[in-house]
Amino acid sequence: MKVIEGYMPFMGHEIYYRIVNPDGEKAPIVFLHGGPGSSHNYFEVFDPLSGKLDRPFVMYDQIGCGESTVEGGAELFNANTWLNELDSIRDHLNLEEVHILGQSWGGMMAIWYAIERKPKGVLSYILSSTLPSAKIWKEEQHRRISYMPEEMRQAIYKAEETGNYDDEGYLAAVDEFMIRYCAGRVTEDSPEYLRRPKKGGSVSYVVGWGKNEFTPTGTLSGYDFTDRLHEIEVPCLITSGQIDLCSPFIAKSMYDLLPNAKWELFQYSRHMPFIEESERYFQVMIDWLKDKK
Hints:
alpha/beta; 8-stranded mixed sheet; 8 strands; about 15% strand; globular
C-alpha cells in the first residue's frame, strides 16, 4: 500500500502527516488521535482497510506529539490551537470533502469542531470511544474506581486530595485501572506500531487534560457539549467497548442526543475496539461508508 509522509508548517513548528492510499477515489478519512498527547501510531492498524474502501486515510501527529514534538509549548495546548491545526491540515492537503474519525480526545475535538466551527465538507463523523462532557467522564471513571480494591481506591483518593501523583501505591492503582478499561500491556508480540517508542506528548496531556484519566484539571476540563449535540446534523457513527473508558452510559448519552446517529457497542473491547475486535470494527466501517461519497 502506497504511503506518503510529509510535514506541514504550523505556528512556527512542523506537523507530521501520513497519507495511506493517496490515490483512493472516494472521500478521505481524517483520523484524530487521542490524548491529548498520543500519536497516530495506533491508527496504522487501519492501513489495510484503506484499499478496501478506496479512500485515502490521512493521519497526523498533533502539535507536541509524536513526530510533531516541540520544545516546551505549554501555551499551545488548548482547543483553539488544535482546531486551527485541523483546519490547516485540511487546507494544506486540499481536503475539501472528508469523513472524520476521532478517538477519545480526538472524538472530543471532532464534536468541538462540528459545533463551534461548523465546517463545510464533512460528510460524516465516526466518534470512537469518546465523550460529550468532561464532567460525565470524571463521574463515570470515579464510579468505576469505587469497584477497585480498597487499597487502590484509597491511593487514588489520597493523590487527588494531596496532589501527590508520584506515590507508588497511586501509580500501581492507575496502572491497574488503565489495564482494566483502556488497553492491555504492550508485549514483544504486539504489532510494531504499538511497540514503537512514544515521542513527546506528556506536556500536552498534563496541560490539556490533567494527571490521569479521572481527574481533568487542564485546559479541556470545562469541555461540555451535552446540551449542544443536537446541533450536529451530519451523520455520526458512535463506537465504543463494553469495558471502555467510554462506558456504555457515556456512549448512550451521545447517541440519545445526536439527531442522526448510529451506535455500535463492541462486547469484548476496552478503549480501542479497532485493536481488540478489529475484524468486526472494519466491517462496521465498511457498512457505514458503503453508500457515502
